Amino acid sequence: MSAQQQISAEPIVWINGRLVPWSHAALPVWDLGVVAGAAVTEAGRTYGGRFLFADQHIERLLHALQELDFPPTPAKHQLLQAATEIIQHNLQLLPHGSDLGVVMFSTAGENSTYLGRPAGQPTTVVHTYPLPFAMWRNAFVSGVRLTVSRLRQIPADCFPVSLKVRNRLHWWLADHAAEQQSPGSRALLLNRNGSVAETSTSSICVVSNEHVATPDGDVLNSLSSRLVERLCHDAGIPFTRRRVNPSELQDADEIFLTSSPSCLLPVLSVDGCKTRIPPGEGPVFRRLLRDWSLATGVDLERQMLQ
Known about the structure:
Helix content: 25-40%
Radius of gyration: 20 Å
Number of strands: 14
Number of helices: 11
Shape: globular
Largest sheet: 9 strands, mixed
């Protein structure tokens, strides 16, 4: 099979301006993204095949690269064109009604020690994956069980945790420990000051008396959280970003997680303490799920359950 035939037969990935088959996509072992976990990343999704909020995702990626003084990457329009091209191709390989997660990342370049010469260009990648709704279905219906981790969030004096990076060993360790402690649960990290931070893949929102609060310290600048804030504003639901104490989780009416790929997932319990309203039945969760669906033109509940 020729390279062109292989590209046509399987998903494609954009790497430094080249389109390659998924099975051939790789980073060199001397790339700092592998050697040091030094990479900035971005994660969005399609809705009905459309890469909504693409500008925001790419701008956040480029901002993070600039803030961390990473090597220059392709321009915004090149990344957008790459995403558009691979989405169009890769969606054709999936059943009707599927949607894609869209991932972009750029590394800090090459490890000069391994190569014995000055470092060269970074590796910039755009790829997709089929959104695994079946994997999230049980969490959507029954709620996510969270376990407060003994590991703490990386403090901002290490690097700005508001930026989305690939340095995630602490998250893997926290989720692994949570699974060992309470099989099927996910880790919730606290900050160094003991306040609530976030999970490995999602921001957390706490609802009491139909007021929504989300942590504002040492957390990712989450685009899904920003969308929730806008939807709350439009619906007249009070929304605040502030310090959230762990004790508030025990008395919450609703708790839900928000991320770009899975959108909204209700929380069943934190350390075994259940929310007052059963998962998915809270009025704020229901309203936001409806309004997010209307804003994107996709019935998110139906897509999650089908």
